[in-house]
Amino acid sequence: MAQRLVSVWQPFFLGTESPRAAIDAATELEDLGYARIWFSAGFDEKLPSRFRELLDGTERIGIASGIATVWHTSPAEVAAFTEAAEQDHPGRFLLGLGASHAVLVEGDGTDYRKPYSKTVEYLDALDAAGLAPQRRVLAALGPRMLELARDRSAGAHPYFTPAEHTAEARALLGPDRLLAPEVAVVLEPDAEAARAVAREYTAGYLTLPNYTNNLRRFGWTDDDLTGAGSDRLVDALIPWGTADQVADGIEKHFAAGADEVAIQVLNGGDRTSFPTEAFAALAAQLI
């Protein structure tokens, strides 16, 4: 696809209790030129009202679910929300769907079996509800799910992946599907301090087999995946340094075939404040 979009992935937008704070942050990103805001839809049957609040409170910036799980949300409810958003804000809401992780899904008693088949069933239900494929993307990691994203959606939104995965995903998706990886970053030039912040983030994700199995496909070993990850793995997954050094890490994903990169600024686990200065510095480099 002939585009290069710089977007934002930030848990703040769902985590803050204040709609006004979320809208103010979204407006700042809109003014900086970011293309879209991604954040989790959580684990309820309906999409959170925050998606609609941001659409109504901004003028141009796109809003996307990254992700709504196929185990918790109702296809009928999700389709109705997406269609209403499209009617009122044409082209601005993108539905990101995914199979999530067994440890998260089974925590509420749901049996996490055959996630690929569950995703196919969910897409069938969206089709039956009249939701067009171009209004949705899949959180695809492995080849089979990437091919499903190619065949049944507008594209893929991978998470926690190195640039090598972006290249593979582009090859599998072909040239005409959206490829929008999430990339977490740390704006900190000191290696020890930056990796410490990065490891607060990687520690949890490296307990999830969906991610570790995917990383093993690219040659990462148990030594790399133990604990919060080796230096080599952390550096490959999480660009860190000055704004221009971080921008170089983002550029690797564009060079590998990404149409859009959704940047998540890590700020030491703080989900209550928005890292405005970091996003302004990155916008100056990338937009």
Automatic annotation (TrEMBL):
InterPro entries tied to this protein: Bact_Lucif_Oxidored, Lucif-like_OxRdatse_MSMEG_4141, Luciferase-like_dom, Luciferase-like_sf
Domain of life according to the entry: Bacteria
Domain Luciferase-like, first and last residues per copy: 17-259
Name of this chain's protein: TIGR03620 family F420-dependent LLM class oxidoreductase
A Pfam family of this chain: Bac_luciferase
Species: Paractinoplanes ovalisporus
